[in-house]
Protein backbone atom coordinates (compact mmCIF):
# COMPACT_ATOMS: atom_id res chain seq x y z
CA UNK A 1 0.00 0.00 0.00
CA UNK A 2 1.45 3.35 -0.97
CA UNK A 3 0.20 6.44 0.80
CA UNK A 4 -0.11 9.69 -1.16
CA UNK A 5 2.36 12.50 -0.55
CA UNK A 6 -0.43 14.61 0.92
CA UNK A 7 -0.29 12.40 4.05
CA UNK A 8 3.38 13.28 4.67
CA UNK A 9 3.93 16.34 6.85
CA UNK A 10 7.08 18.00 8.17
CA UNK A 11 8.81 15.77 10.72
CA UNK A 12 7.29 12.54 9.43
CA UNK A 13 9.70 9.59 9.34
CA UNK A 14 9.70 8.07 5.86
CA UNK A 15 10.61 4.64 4.47
CA UNK A 16 11.00 3.25 0.94
CA UNK A 17 7.79 2.00 -0.64
CA UNK A 18 7.59 -0.97 -3.00
CA UNK A 19 7.33 1.35 -6.02
CA UNK A 20 10.58 3.21 -5.18
CA UNK A 21 8.91 6.29 -3.71
CA UNK A 22 8.77 7.22 -0.05
CA UNK A 23 5.87 6.64 2.31
CA UNK A 24 5.27 7.50 5.95
CA UNK A 25 6.36 5.01 8.59
CA UNK A 26 3.21 3.17 9.62
CA UNK A 27 2.11 2.99 13.25
CA UNK A 28 -0.61 0.96 14.90
CA UNK A 29 -2.21 1.10 18.33
CA UNK A 30 -2.11 -2.28 20.06
CA UNK A 31 -3.73 -2.55 23.50
CA UNK A 32 -3.28 1.21 24.02
CA UNK A 33 0.40 1.28 22.96
CA UNK A 34 1.57 2.97 19.75
CA UNK A 35 3.80 0.55 17.82
CA UNK A 36 5.83 1.59 14.73
CA UNK A 37 6.66 -0.86 11.96
CA UNK A 38 10.17 -2.32 11.94
CA UNK A 39 11.21 -1.02 8.51
CA UNK A 40 14.49 0.91 8.33
CA UNK A 41 13.78 4.62 7.89
CA UNK A 42 15.31 6.78 5.17
CA UNK A 43 15.01 10.01 7.13
CA UNK A 44 12.58 12.81 7.97
CA UNK A 45 10.32 14.88 5.73
CA UNK A 46 11.28 18.56 5.89
CA UNK A 47 8.03 20.07 4.69
CA UNK A 48 4.78 19.61 2.83
CA UNK A 49 4.61 18.22 -0.68
CA UNK A 50 4.98 20.73 -3.51
CA UNK A 51 4.27 19.52 -7.05
CA UNK A 52 4.48 15.91 -5.81
CA UNK A 53 8.00 16.33 -4.40
CA UNK A 54 9.07 16.34 -0.75
CA UNK A 55 12.45 17.36 0.63
CA UNK A 56 13.79 14.65 2.93
CA UNK A 57 16.69 14.85 5.39
CA UNK A 58 18.37 11.49 4.75
CA UNK A 59 19.78 9.81 7.82
CA UNK A 60 22.34 7.20 6.69
CA UNK A 61 23.13 4.55 9.28
> Which overall shape is indicated by the principal axes computed on the Cα atoms?
globular
- Rg over alpha carbons: 12 Å
The domain tally reads 1
Could you give the distance between the termini?
A: 25 Å
Largest sheet: 4 strands, antiparallel
Number of helices: 0
Biggest sheet: strands side by side, in what order? Answer: 2-1-5-6
| Class by alpha and beta content | mainly beta
Unreliable parts: none
Order of helical and strand elements: EEEEEE
Architecture overview:
This protein has 61 residues and is mainly beta. The protein has one domain (5-56). It has no helices and 6 strands. Strands 2-1-5-6 form a 4-stranded antiparallel β-sheet, with no helix packed on it. It is globular, with a radius of gyration of 12 Å. The termini are far apart.
Give the tags:
single chain; 61 residues; mainly beta; four-stranded antiparallel beta sheet; two-stranded antiparallel sheet; 6 strands
Amino acid sequence: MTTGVAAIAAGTRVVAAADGRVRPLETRTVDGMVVAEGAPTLGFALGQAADGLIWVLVNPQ
